[in-house]
Write a sequence for this structure.
């Protein structure tokens, strides 16, 4: 009689941990190249990340004055605490910060609602128009008292408004340019190509200079336009050129059968474009729209060259205060954290939206 012993039972969780460890080990040390990359990353952490964390957290000064900060070797976050209001709102009247914050809240809420697919409908266009008009009215101070001149609009509210309104204004214009570039009418097609390639062939800073320096010279004597309005229009035109190419890529990705099916149903060109082509094309390039929006949000810092106080510029100017002179590292670090946080959140949303749309297609 032979005795048999049952094989040891390996819990699924333990087996899963072992498999993951093997995968990690192969990825980190499985080849000479992987080993070199791992060692390089460890060296980067030891020589760059660790000293930065020590500067930013361990040796930092969180409260106090500039004198207190000078006694320590770390970051001076007391500077951010003291100058935070100016960094966020800049030249906006200090007693009316609530209005600027309310305008930012309206814009942020609008972006969040737009990011939820269940709210995608034609009514969303009206919501955008009403909300942006309300944000501009609140920012101007119309509901509560004397108007705030646009020269005082600065800081993060200015950055938010320039980027969101720029994207919203460029969206319909970009769609129109994309359709015009694919038009069978030569004049319309050539004009669209000329506009798109011209805008894409020059940097945004050049477009801003033209809107600020050259455009006023073209106006009749006595006619003036607000500098902020000119900058906003320049941003819209610049972004529209890139958006047109994104939309055109979406249109070209559709199979020809979609057009043929629409014709077989007797739909006109406008009905085919509105009901069949554009909905599918726009859905296909939504991740590219998000990437363009992130780029626009970051590029609004270029308005500094035409004298507008955006968020990055107010952070830099805050470090020139006689009581806090020289804390540029903290100012730029804080601004970078804000830019990175919002951009990273938008990029994660883009990845989520891709998965959501892919699952939605599979369930049809």
């Amino acid at each position: 009689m032979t005795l048999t012993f049952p094989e040891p039972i390996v819990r699924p969780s333990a087996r899963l941990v072992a498999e993951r460890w093997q995968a990690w080990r192969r990825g980190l040390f499985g080849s000479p190249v992987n080993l070199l990359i791992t060692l390089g990353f460890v060296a980067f952490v030891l020589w760059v990340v660790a000293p930065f964390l020590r500067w930013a957290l361990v040796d930092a000064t969180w409260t106090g004055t500039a004198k207190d900060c000078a006694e320590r070797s770390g970051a001076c976050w007391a500077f951010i605490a003291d100058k935070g209001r100016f960094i966020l709102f800049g030249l906006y009247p200090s007693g009316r910060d609530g209005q600027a914050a309310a305008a930012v809240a309206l814009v942020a809420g609008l972006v969040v609602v737009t990011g939820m697919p269940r709210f995608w409908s034609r009514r969303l266009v009206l919501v955008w128009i009403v909300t942006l008009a309300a944000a501009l009215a609140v920012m101007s101070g119309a509901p509560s008292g004397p108007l705030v001149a646009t020269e005082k609009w600065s800081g993060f509210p200015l950055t938010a408004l320039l980027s969101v309104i720029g994207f919203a204004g460029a969206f319909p214009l970009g769609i129109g340019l994309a359709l015009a570039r694919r038009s069978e009418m030569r004049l319309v097609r050539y004009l669209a190509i000329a506009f798109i390639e011209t805008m894409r062939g020059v940097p945004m800073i050049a477009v801003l200079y033209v809107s600020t320096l050259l455009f006023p010279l073209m106006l009749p004597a006595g006619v003036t336009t607000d500098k902020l309005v000119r900058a906003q229009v320049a941003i819209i035109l610049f972004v529209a050129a890139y958006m047109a190419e994104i939309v055109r890529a979406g249109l070209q990705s559709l199979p020809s059968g979609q057009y043929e099916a629409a014709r077989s149903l007797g739909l006109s060109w406008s009905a085919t474009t509105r009901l069949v082509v554009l909905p599918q094309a726009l859905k296909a390039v939504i991740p590219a729209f998000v990437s363009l929006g992130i780029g626009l949000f970051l590029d609004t810092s270029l308005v500094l060259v035409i004298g507008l106080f955006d968020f990055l510029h107010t952070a830099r100017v805050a470090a020139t205060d006689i009581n806090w002179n020289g804390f540029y590292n903290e100012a730029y670090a804080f601004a970078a954290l804000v830019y990175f946080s919002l951009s990273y959140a938008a990029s994660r949303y883009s990845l989520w939206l891709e998965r959501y749309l892919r699952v939605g297609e599979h369930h049809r």
